[in-house]
Amino acid sequence: DLGAQKGLTGVDVIVAVLWPGDSRWGPLAYAGEERDADESAATLAKTILGRMPSVRRASFVAHSLGSRGTMQTASFLRGSRVALGEVVLMAAAVDRDALARPDRYRLATEACTRVSNLSSSEDQVLKWAFPFGDGLGAILFGGYTRGPLGLVGPTGGDGRGVPPNVLARPIPPL
């Protein structure tokens, strides 16, 4: 049991997920790395469920495309023996309506104690690179692009609005 080996038996575990975003492909990397993030999420969820049996609740802190991996991991963990605690998304490279859409992360979002989203309208990577790479991904792999969560904050996806446990925290410009 990895949790017991690390002395974490009987306590909450915070899993920090950071996506290494520097690629020689620049904004084109988003298109392929979304799939990598989803595959990493499956591996992370399997590790938590299979190798950390003492874990009863998991919280996450994520940045950029790691936010997609985090919410996908939460989707895999939802309904398991591991309760979903706090989630903090910083500069999330995820479509802005993903937390509200039932076909994306709404159910996982609702299962969390709280999802805090830190966004900045001044984030140049999310402003320029994300729309290009996400749009290319939509063309190549299907889907669509709605603008990044980490740039504009969460919006409702299907008319039901953003789940009430989502805390939106825009960072003011300097």
List the helices and strands and how they pair.
Layout: H1 2-5, E1 13-18, H2 29-51, E2 57-63, H3 66-77, E3 83-90, H4 106-111, E4 112-119, H5 124-141, H6 149-152, E5 166-170
Parallel strand pairs: 1-2, 2-3, 3-4, 4-5
Descriptive overview:
The relative contact order is 0.17. The longest helix has 23 residues, at 29-51. α4 (106-111) links the parallel β3 (83-90) and β4. This protein has 6 helices and 5 strands. Strands 1-2-3-4-5 form a 5-stranded parallel β-sheet. Helices cover 39% and strands 20% of the residues. The model has no long low-confidence stretch (mean pLDDT 83). By secondary structure, the chain is an alpha/beta fold. α2 packs parallel to α3 (66-77).
Can you give me a brief rundown of this structure?
This protein is an alpha/beta fold. The chain contains 6 helices and 5 strands.
Notable characteristics:
174 residues, alpha/beta, 5-stranded parallel sheet, 6 helices, 5 strands, globular
Arrangement of strands in the largest sheet: 1-2-3-4-5
User: What is the mean predicted local confidence, pLDDT?
Assistant: 83
**Overall strand count:** 5
Low-confidence stretches: none
**Main beta sheet: strand number and arrangement?**
5 strands, parallel
Please identify the oligomeric state: single chain
Number of helices, counting only DSSP H or I runs of 4 residues or more: 6
- The fraction of residues in strands falls at 15-25%
Task: Give me the secondary-structure category.
Answer: alpha/beta
N/C terminus separation: 46 Å
H/E order of the elements? HEHEHEHEHHE
Shape: globular
Helicity level, as a percent range? 25-40%
Q: Which value, in Å, is the CA radius of gyration?
A: 16 Å
